[in-house]
Write a structure and sequence with these properties.
single chain, 290 residues, mainly alpha, globular
Length: 290
Amino acid sequence: MAVPDSHLVAVAVLGTLAVIFFSVERVAPLRPRRAPLLRRLLVNAVISASALGAAVVAVRPAAAAAFAWTSDAHFGLVQFIDAPAAIRAAAAFVLMDLSFYYWHRLNHRLPLLWRFHNIHHLDPDLDVSTSFRFHFGEVGLSACFRAVQILLIGPSLGAYLAYEFVFQANTLFQHSNIKLPVKVERILNRLLVTPRMHGIHHSEILRENRSNFGVVFPWWDRIHRSLRLNIPQSRVSIGVAGYSLPEDNGLWRALVMPFRRQRDYWTAPDGRRPERDEAVLGELPSRMVE
C-alpha cells in the first residue's frame, strides 16, 4: 500500500491540530488537572512512540496485505453496491466507523483486550496527549482487526485514507480537555463524538466506562443504547480506580502491567468502589449537561 504525498500533508495537519488543542486546553480546561503535567507527557510520549512502532511493524503491513487481496478479488461488502464510486466510498466510511464501534466495545469486554486497553484508560487526566497513548500490545492485536475490517468492507484506498484522517482528527478532538460552551458542544455532538461525551467514557465508574464507545459518529451509541451524556464534567473522575496510585502511571509499570496479574479494576486501593450519586444526573441520558 503506497503512501501518497497527501499522507504527509495529513500528518502535518494532524500535528498542527494536536498543538492547537494542547494550547487551548491549557487556557480553557474542561476538567481540572489531577497529576503533574510534565511527568504525564513524558509517560504518554514514550507509550505513544511504542504504539507508533507497533503500527508500522504490524498494522500497516496487515492493512496492505488485505488491500492487495481485496483489490485483486474485488471482495468486500461495498463491492456489491451497484452505485457510483462516491456512494460506495460513503458506505465504506460509515461501515468502518461502525466496525470500530464494535472493536472498541470488545476492547472493554474481552479480558485479554482490556488488559492492554486499560493502559489508555489509567491515565489520571484526559487531554490531547491521551489520544496517542495506547499500549503497543493493543496496537499489535488491532492488526488482525484492521485486516478483517478491510477484507469484509472492501473500501477503496481513498475511502480508507479519508476515514483514517477523520478518525485521527476526531480522536484528538474528543480526548482534548477543551471547554466549549455546552450549547455548542450539543450541536457538534449531533455529528461527532465530543470531549464531554468521551470524558464520561474515561470515568473511573464502571457503568460510565462502558458507555460512549463511538469513535467518529455518536449515532452508534444511540442505536445500541450505550449513550450516557447526563453526567456533569465536574463530577467525572478520570482513570481506573484499581490503578489510581501515582506509581501505577509510571512508564515501566504501564508497559509491563498487561503481563502481570490484574487487580480488581473498579475497586480503589483503599477498598472504595466508586459509584455515582444519581441526584447529580441530568434527567435524560441522551441530553448533554454542563
